[in-house]
TrEMBL record:
Residues 3-279 form the FAD/NAD(P)-binding domain. InterPro entries: BFD-like_2Fe2S-bd_dom, BFD-like_2Fe2S-bd_dom_sf, FAD/NAD-bd_sf, FAD/NAD-binding_dom, FAD/NAD-linked_Rdtase_dimer_sf, NasD-like, NiRdtase/SiRdtase_haem-b_fer, Nit/Sulf_reduc_fer-like_dom_sf. This is NAD(P)/FAD-dependent oxidoreductase. SUPFAM superfamilies: FAD/NAD(P)-binding domain (SSF51905), Nitrite and sulphite reductase 4Fe-4S domain-like (SSF56014), Nitrite/Sulfite reductase N-terminal domain-like (SSF55124). Residues 315-382 form the NADH-rubredoxin oxidoreductase C-terminal domain. Belongs to the nitrite and sulfite reductase 4Fe-4S domain family.
Amino acid sequence: MKKLVMIGNGMAGVSFVEQLLKLNPHRYDITIIGSEPHPNYNRIMLSSVLAGEATMEDIVLNSWEWYRENNIQLHAGQTVTAVDTEARTVTTNLGLQLEYDELVFATGSLPFMLPLPGADKEGVIAFRDIKDCETMLSASKQYKKAVVIGGGLLGLEAARGLVNLNMEVHVVHIHHYLMERQLDETAAKLLQAELERQGMKFLLTKNSDTIIGGERVEGLTFKDGTSVEADLIVMAVGIKANSLLAKDAGVTVNRGIVVDDYMQTNIPNVYAVGECAEHRGIVYGLVAPLYEQGAVLAKKLAGIEADGYQGSVLSTKLKISGVNVFSAGDFSDGPDTRALRVQDDLDGIYKKVVFKDGKISGAVLFGDTSEGSKLFSYIRKGESFAGREKEVLFGPSGGGKASGPEDLVKAMSGDEIVCGCNGVTKDTIVEAITEKGCVSVGEIKACTKASGSCGGCKPLVEAILLETVGADNVSAVKEGICGCTTHSRDEVVEAVRSMRLTTSREVMAVLEWKNPEGCSKCRPALNYYLGMIWPAEHEDELESRFVNERNHANIQKDGTYSVVPRIYGGVTTPEDLKRIAEVAEKYEVPLVKITGGQRIDLLGVKKEDLPKMWKDLDMPSGYAYGKTLRTVKTCVGKTFCRFGTQDSIQMGIDMEKKFERLNTPHKVKLAVSGCPRNCAESTIKDLGVIAIDGGWEIYVGGNGGTKVRAAELLVKVKTEEEVLEWTGAYLQYYREDATYLERTSEWAARVGLDAIKKALEKKEERDALNSRIDHTLSLTQDPWKQIIENDELRSAFDALTAPVHAEAAAATVTKADQSI
């Protein structure tokens, strides 16, 4: 069997290997060498890790098991230092020497670091891999001022994550508008306005000059004499092909490793693919072209005759801080082009399609990118719209959309990429449906990874599924709560109620789960639904909870935990403050921080110290780790403020004491403002209360996180009792109706405010909902106190079970979370 060695373990290279295995799985003995100590992961999703929306496990594309199952030898954490193309060997930094018959460079790219004076100071980094994410996360705990140099996609993604980490972020860009390679000026200005609303600050047309400070960065000066303070500087100004190793081996290198149409270099049996490769003078940095290159190389090495790689028409479909943008082709205006533009400032939508000689040469979409795939298909095919240009956006009649996903699917060729994040073609999806029996988007995602990253291609995947199974079989397209079952959330909940199922195992057995043990997605969901429906009968299944909920504390990157005691309404006493300070000193807590929810966070606590700390604190758990009520933020209201109209402090304390320990589909944050000035930020909370003259306004469905959503007015009431009544009814309705892990903002947007109002408008309905929530609350206990008083529960926190090193901590989290 021939020996195939690939240098690099990134997305482009492993995609090539996946396709090679499909075409000719037994032709090569495959070895992969990767510098990072991780399996192949989705680099596009690094910003989600930084923003706290995903973990490392969530973005892994090919697990350790995948390599073993496919007999691939992976040497992770090793770097190739030399290639001998005459002896056909590669050597690593750890002394490993491997022979090869075929060699593939998939070394990717390196971040370009501006050669500024002071660039070697501590706190100046790039944003390229997991290690960079960890550095930024660590810095955010100690420092507060960040500067991102580069207003392109990577820079904005880094800025988004840093804003989410509560840092003050300035984005520096040399151009006069953002993302000039992907957007035109109009779309860029719309994007900038939205990002400014989310908290980013921008310094445009700025040319960086010097990084100032001592050992650590303290600021950045510009050529115009101005400056900005910074504790952290992230350079996101571009990438360059990682081609030095190939050059040292005698391979022809220009901007990248020069390859022909079959990805072959000037040396026999040596190939290059991905960001390190230069084809016809172009080095591509987007994933779709790299996957297309991999498909050509896979056919070449599998011994299959095929057309060579002809280059790619570039397109970008992205979601930046919750905003959808799309661009493709050449969308610049010129003397020989004409453009069709649509701008809707009310809904934040902008569309521009550029025509040249009757054909679409490029397009930009902002806010609504549903037509992106269709436009990209038109660009690739070179279809002429001479004399009927408006049909592209308005349809043949000029009054509506030209077509939907279903029409696009019919026009798509089999080799067209549907999922740009993971390089999945239409043929691959159809094969998963017809040959592997996938009958839902969830199953297709599990089988092919299509729609598994940003989710932007989900409508297209659904359309392909519908076209393939036929309209008569539309019922078969139903998506279950996970890949273990075809049953939807509503069907599971109904079965639990009607058949009085009280354990997860009963649900899985009765509803015939494909995987009798369940998975990390369905087991926590089932545990929640059972507890919500049968709070007295169902015994909480700790093994089905996430690691933070099992340990009643948030695990940190170094394996330690954070402890956040309950501080009702943000109001504390000197006695409690003394106790917290004494506990922090006793257990040598490295960091004590005031949280955004008006509480005190003790960070860096060893697992074995948790029960002892809880006992010494003698305060209730603040549930900073759970899918439950987190905080009720308050302002001082009329107690001290000259503008206050109601007692917001007492209202907040009453709400927090009533609803603490309430399990919910996702975390819930409340706030009470003492006047319409809204100092407690009530209009971006899951539920916010604002005092007005003679009463209160209750707002619902808000979110101040990465997907900002303003809360909507639910009702105006006169008394504090009515506030508690409506709050209880709303929270219970959310508990009973929402899908597990669905935030109130997502749920409210999905069901609509009118439906929520209708469900709560009758007093008897609100009373019934409050009766059920009161029954649930009467059964809850403080978990810290439970563990302190129970030897068996406390034994789980013994020193022998606590991770000592960061590596052990990571392994513990991975194993625990995989077990649910």
